[in-house]
Amino acid sequence: MLHPLITRLTSQILDGTPLTEEQGRLLAGLESDHTTELLFAANSVTRAMGHRPFTCSITNAKSGTCSQDCRFCAQSGHYTTGSPNHPLLPLDELIENGLAMHKAGASCYSLVTSGLMLSSDEITRICACIETLRSRTTLELSASLGLLNNDYARRLVQAGLTRYHHNLETARSHFPSICTTHSYDEDIATIRLAKEHGLKICSGGILGLGESWAQRIELAATLAELDVDTVPLNFLSPIPGTPLEASPLLSAHDALKSVALFRLMLPQVSITIAGGRERVLGDYQSWLPLAGANGMMIGNYLTTKGRNLEADLRMLEQGKWI
Ligand code: SF4
Q: NCBIfam families per the record (predicted)?
């Protein structure tokens, strides 16, 4: 039998009334004895909303030497991490990577760049890549290029971009402990601008940055208020050389419970699981659809695509939870 609070709030969601932040905090505060019931509720909401499985993929189009000081990030120029540094990849390489991910079965392909904001010339190259992939594939095309302005958003949409990715990373109340070089409001302004230009929004964060359960719910409530379309959830995999290098890994229990809470707070959105899942969840990765996730990033960075792709596609095929 489900805990009465879970039963009541699941009915509320299925009747079309979203959870309040306070209700989310009540669910997050339930004892771990009730976590499988939360997963069950999250799965029933996923199914009732008709979410379908999907796969997304990214290319690390520009890497490292970032001016920002995000304390989890291997690409920040403030830390020495040994992560790859390269300028924006040549156009033919960006296109080839997209064609490879299309062939591998990805539904969505995202060009991801480090740095606060690209230059106008870099946007021109990204637009050329998008135009080519739009004419040669059925991929949904996404980009994660840092902050946007009106001119960049207009050119990207004209080239065929349909989705913009910009993570909030964590709750507003926790953000100053994670990044001091730009503000939460700048991130929110970019999300609103992309939305104004008709782009679908993919925005989520990283769990395990030292945030509380209440702050996880706060992030979910902010994303609900922004009316985003897709929420990518990452689990921190601490990077040596960053200030968070000694952070404890989330337990598989807490990771799955978090996914379930995001599903209950955000019933209509697609929830996709990205970085850190292998390390944090291990054998429990196959529980992700049961916990309310319906998307999976495949291929990660292209150096590991062979093994990950096969294992991930098999896992998605075998899972009948959604
Ligand atoms: S802005 Fe992006 S690339 Fe730069 S440090 Fe922050 S997370 Fe890393």
A: bioB
- Asked whether the beta carbons of 123 and 131 are under 8 A apart, the reply is no
Nearest-CA residue for atom 5 of ligand 1: 76
Pick the closest to residue 41 from 320, 292, 295 (CA basis): 292
Indicate which atom in ligand 1 lies nearest the CA of residue 76. 5
Q: What is the pLDDT of residues 166-177, one digit of tens each?
A: 999 999 999 999
For residue 119, the CA-to-ligand 1 centroid distance in Å is 16
- DSSP conformation letters of 230-283: EEEEEE--PPTTSTTTTPPPPPHHHHHHHHHHHHHH-TTSEEEE-TTHHHHHGG
Q: Is 56 annotated as a binding residue?
A: no
Compute the CA torsion angle 98, 118, 172, 256 (nearest 10 deg): 20
Each domain of the chain, given as residue ranges in start order, spans 4-318
Least confident interval from 50-54, 60-64, 94-98, 131-135:
50-54
> Each residue of 280-302: pLDDT tens digit?
998 898 899 899 999 888 765 43
C-beta neighbour count of 228 within 10 angstroms = 23
Mean pLDDT, rounded, of the chain? 91
Q: Given this model, what pLDDT does residue 151 score?
A: 97
Residue 119: exposure state from Cβ atoms within 10 A (0-12, 13-18, ≥19): exposed
Ligand 1 proximity of 67 Cβ (cutoff 6 Å): no
Please state the CATH superfamily assignment of the domain spanning residues 4-318 in this structure: Aldolase class I (3.20.20.70)
Using DSSP bridges, classify how beta strands 205-207 and 200-202 pair: parallel, antiparallel or unpaired. unpaired
